[in-house]
Amino acid sequence: MPLFCDAGFDRPLAVPSALHHLKATPRTTHWGYFDAALAPALTVDSGDLIQAEALTHHAGDDPDLLMDEDMHRIWRDTPEADRFPGVHLMTGPIHVRGARPGDMLEVRYLAMTPRFRYGSNLAAHWGQLYAELGERERVTIYGLDPATNTAEAVYAYDVAEKYLVPGRITHCPECDRQPALRGVRVPIRPHLGTAGVAPDAMGRVSTIPPGLHGGNIDNWRIGAGATMYYKVQVDGGLFSIGDPHVSQGDGEISGTAIEASLDVLFQVILRRDFTFRSPLLETPDHFIVHGFGDTLDAAAREASLDTLSLLKEAGLSTDDAYSLLSVSGDLAVTQVVDGTVGTHMKIRRDSLPPRSGGR
């Protein structure tokens, strides 16, 4: 059955059989990796709701504002030597009963609430313009205003050493604080930078590059009200979330978003009525296909080819789908700073044939 015959936004919210609470603790987090051999932190049934804590690994940019005692415990109990090969602090994994390789995991993100009223942006050595801007790292701390749903810079400081230790803690009371972005406000749009299923691979797989399992996609549209589809690669799916953000632009040019911990409410639904190769995002107005590669050209080609497949599944011929891609598809850069770069292709739901569920 094609995806469009029963897409998430055309179906009523599945009635959950249970609501689970997944706190981030040393036992329920894993730092820097996905691993198919990792024991589940939680086991759920299809349709269950999960209220989970997603913690930013950049909380140490100002521990007074961005960390509480529960987070300090995770930092203390997770040795720096065990934070590899990536950098992101992940909560999970979640085992979905009955999920088998080839199934699709539908994840409906229902709510994302900041844990604190502050977040951090790091202009890092992996940022696109690091060399051009004097090869220095700069932290900008933002305050979040829930009344206006905006963020405003509070202060900034420079860091002499590169960010090499995941979870690095700097002591801002001892740093040279500088004013930043006076009078500028940016919209708050909480989302997950990194989430996905465990890849079918031996050992640890870094959280840094995105891939067919999901991972570090860094698309700011993966927030409350969005649905993601991930292709299951191992039994149970082993789904994890992390790298929470409160605002980011397409490109993530400096290296990070406004990194801030989130409480995330989501529903997981096991789907066997369709399949799709790459992580697929559905919003009320669009289907968004992601492409990854060593270059933007390679990533753009992947996104275009997978969107072509999606449109053919909707009932279009190859030639018609190709034409629609050109006149209605919006191809854009997702991020350029994760080693494996990302693009996304947006196709409007209302541009699809009526029988496919387009509005």
TrEMBL record:
Listed GO MF terms: hydrolase activity, acting on carbon-nitrogen (but not peptide) bonds, in linear amides
Domain of life of the source: Bacteria
One protein family per Pfam: FmdA_AmdA
Signal sequence, renumbered to the chain: none
Protein name as catalogued: Formamidase
